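Thread title: Can someone regenerate the structure for this chain?

I was given the following input by a collaborator and told the matching C-alpha cells would be attached. They weren't. Posting the sequence so someone can regenerate them.
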Amino acid sequence: MLKKISDYFSITEDGLFTSFINPVWAVPFPDTAELDRYFLLRYGDRIGSKICEFYADSEDGTIKGDKLSELASMVYDINARKWEHLFGVYEAEYNPIENTDYIETINETNANIRTDVGNTTNSGTSTTTNNGTATGSNNGAINEFGFDSADAVGKGTNNGTNTNTVNSSSTITSNDTSSGTNTINDNNTHISEHRKHGNIGTVDAVTLARNEVDFWKWSFIDQICKDICDIIALSIY
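Best answer:
Regenerated them for you:
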C-alpha cells in the first residue's frame, strides 16, 4: 500500500525543517514549526518514496527521533550547495531597472627613491701667548755674636733684587671633515573604488520591470519544499 508523505510525519510534531541544523534561511525564516506545517499541508499528499520507508519507525510507521535527524541531515547535505546559491539570489539587493552594477577598484603604487649626499669641513687655528715678569728684593741686617757674648752685634747689611721673566706661545691647528649619504625610499599606494551602475541601453526599463515581476513569482521556500520532495516523494507530479 502506498503511503503519503503526511503519513510519515505528524503535523503536531517536529518535521524536516525543525530538524535541519542551522540552515541558510534560519534568520529570515525562524519559525521552523510553521515551515513544517506548510510543507505537510502543501506537499503532504505526495506519495512517499522508499527513502521514507527506510527511515520509518517499525512500530507506528512514522519518521521521528534519530531517524528524522538522519534523514534531515541527508536531505540538507545533498542540497546544501544549491540552497546556498538560491538563498543568495533571494537576498540580493539590486535596482530592477538597471542591468549593470559593478565596482571598479584602481590600485596605484608610486615608488620614489631619493639620495642625499653631504660633506662638512671644519678647520681653524688657535694661538695662545703668555708673557710675564716677576721681580723680588731681599733686604736684611747681618749680626754676629762675639766670644762669650749674650747679644749679637751688627756686622753689615744684605741688599738683593731678583727678576724672573716668562715668555710662552702655543698654536693649535685643527681640520675636521665629515661626509654622509642618506637614501630615502618614498612609496605611496592609493586604492580607489568606483561604482558603475545603470542601464547600458541593451534592454529597456519596461522589459526589466516585467522580468522582475516574473522572477518574484518564484518562491524560495516552495523551491526548498520541491527539492525535499525530489528525495522523499515519488516522481509522479
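The helical segments are 5-8, 16-19, 32-43, 50-55, 65-91, 205-215, 220-232.
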